[in-house]
Design goal:
mainly alpha; about 85% helix
Length: about 120
């Protein structure tokens, strides 16, 4: 199940970044709008794949999407706090970001497994 979750994360990132490149570099839209659109599209793409493939949930869509967004928002805020705290004690920016990514990957997986898509 965790391997599927990682695959979904990789695919979602490709969708996110691909859309950013298309919207910004080909269509010529603002980078912030392009990034926001890519992020939301990747998030929804990940939700669908995680719901039906990773966790094989048959529960009601609207309840799960709200919980899904909450888990990702909550862990994003924690990620920023981790990065800020580590940089404050002289960790390199890149290492702090990598540790934050590691945390959010694990926390998001368990948040989805135990709360969003639990049976």
């Amino acid at each position: 199940m965790f391997k599927s979750f990682i695959v979904v994360g990789i695919l979602s990132t490709i969708v996110n970044y691909g859309l950013v490149l298309i919207l910004h570099n080909i269509i010529g839209l603002n980078i912030y709008f392009s990034s926001f659109s890519g992020y939301l599209t990747g998030l929804l793409f990940g939700f669908i794949l995680n719901k039906f493939w990773t966790f094989q949930s048959s529960r009601h869509f609207s309840n799960e999407i709200i919980k899904y967004l909450f888990v990702y928002l909550f862990n994003f805020i924690i990620n920023l706090l981790i990065i800020y705290s580590l940089i404050a004690i002289d960790f390199a920016d890149e290492l702090a970001a990598l540790i934050g990514i590691f945390y959010t990957t694990i926390a998001n997986f368990f948040g989805l497994k135990k709360w969003v898509f639990s049976n």
